[in-house]
């Protein structure tokens, strides 16, 4: 049984499949489905940092793949927001809060699309409010990139110098 479980997980974390796993985890994490891209990212980044090889090119590629997957998932949520009919009022607390912030600050709220819970709502509301698509893409990508750079910035010193 343990061999089966080990071989199953090695399928996802083998060197050949790491970037594919990261991409789809990021994609699922930024839609309405759970994907835990932070856990996958920190696991894969830790492997690169701890190894004796120079981690910089591979970490750069990992950040780019994670950002692209996560951004694409947010754009799917944006597209779903385009399909939602307009209503006058919502009873959900987080949705109401995100809607108020989106109306107050406009498209700049998409810089916070990386936040848990409300980040996905911001992307959906951006589509619902018909924010400019190209500006939305740019701000979503910047927000997602900052998320993974922050994760790496907190992870790297701990693994390299503390452990």
Question: What does it look like?
Answer:
With 163 residues, the chain is mostly helical. It is 74% helix and 0% strand. The chain is elongated and about 55 Å long.
Query: Unreliable runs, pLDDT <50, ≥5 residues?
Result: none
**What is the mean predicted local confidence, pLDDT?**
83
What's the total helix number?
7
Radius of gyration: 18 Å
Describe the secondary-structure layout.
Blueprint: H1 2-13, H2 18-29, H3 37-50, H4 56-83, H5 93-105, H6 118-128, H7 133-162
Outline of this structure?
This protein is mostly helical and 163 residues long. It contains 7 helices and no strands.
Key terms:
74% helix, 0% strand, single chain, 163 residues, elongated, mainly alpha, 7 helices
């Amino acid at each position: 049984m343990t061999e089966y479980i080990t071989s199953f997980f090695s399928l996802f974390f083998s060197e050949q499949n790491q970037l594919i796993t990261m991409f789809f985890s990021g994609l699922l994490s930024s839609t309405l489905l759970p994907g835990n891209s932070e856990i996958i990212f920190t696991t894969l980044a830790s492997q690169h940092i701890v190894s004796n090889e120079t981690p910089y090119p591979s970490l750069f590629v990992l950040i780019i793949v994670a950002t692209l997957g996560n951004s694409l998932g947010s754009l799917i949520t944006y597209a779903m927001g385009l399909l939602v009919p307009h209503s006058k009022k919502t009873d959900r607390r987080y949705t109401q809060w995100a809607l108020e912030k989106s109306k107050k600050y406009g498209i700049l709220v998409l810089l916070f699309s990386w936040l848990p819970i409300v980040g996905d709502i911001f992307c959906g509301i951006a589509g619902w409010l018909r924010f400019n698509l190209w500006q939305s893409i740019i701000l979503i990508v910047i927000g997602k990139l900052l998320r993974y750079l922050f994760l790496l910035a907190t992870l790297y010193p701990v693994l390299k110098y503390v452990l």
